[in-house]
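Render this sequence as a predicted structure.
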Amino acid sequence: MNKPKHKLSKKQRRELFSLFSLITFSAFFVSILLVSVISYFVVRNGIFHIDEKDIPGAGRLIMFIALLSVLFNIIFILISGKVWLKPVKRLIDGMKQLAGGDYSARMTIGKPFGDMAVMRAVSDSFNSMAEELENTEVLRSDFINNFSHEFKTPIVSIAGFAKLLKRGDLSDDEKKEYVDIIEEESMRLSYMATNVLNLTKVENQTILTDVSVFNLSEQIRSCILLLEEKWSRKNLELYIDFDEYLISGNEEILKHIWINLLDNAIKFSPDYGSLKVKIEQDDKNISVSISNNGTSIPPDIQNNIFNKFYQADESHSAAGNGIGLAIVKKVVELHDGTVSVQSANNLTMFTVTLPKSRPNAGE
């Protein structure tokens, strides 16, 4: 998995070195200048009488110059430090705001430091971090509200129909209908809870384990059969004709990719729509494409749908909790693969590309 680089560039390192060198040189130069002027004034006005035989006087003068140098250095650092350390203070203040939960904090560095590439890099990195935290907090807050609603709805349905069943004055058809609803809503609760647990599991996983070689085609077919009730209910036309393909990876967590993508495709397909699964390969990679017809995903939303807790359907007319595609992205990244989406003209296609083989597969 490619990780973003956080190292400073050579230019930024040079600017940082130049900045600290300038501070050190300025303190040294100003203190030497002031000490020289004062020493000249002291000797010139006879405060210290120095001649070739006056060794103690020379020693006192040297001591006086040394103490004066230290004093002026301290004074210069205290005065100039407020200027030189201003960007650092702003960074610390901004971090305190973030730590306190204020994710609207942003960092700006004025001149002359703002013109330096290294300082711009510091402020840009801080602002990117703050913006990401702010967006995550908004998504987290929305998720809690939405997820609470999603959980509450089936629970209320289950409780309501259970009370109706307790009355006992129902026909057999009514009892069957209510039991079916309770079963459906229970499965919906189970699916949501499972997705949350799966996301937690893959998020805490940084190294791919349990790698083996298995039949990818057979796995995808089993996932399609697992969701048969859902696509049969919508009378979807399936196109799943593909050859047999082997792949090396974690068989258990790769299954989450196909279940989530297939479930999404079914969910957002109209009745009597179509669902297509295509597998292709080259020398190194295998690509699986899952497509369906239905409402297209707007371009501005396509960049966000893989974010944790994000829901494109803000009306919640379709069941979902913004976790499925986040699981897909994380599992794909664990396998050093990529996932992309194309959506236009009422046709949406998700494509997952994975390496065919991995080191130590089957061991």
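Summary. The chain has ten helices and seven strands. The longest strand covers residues 285-293.
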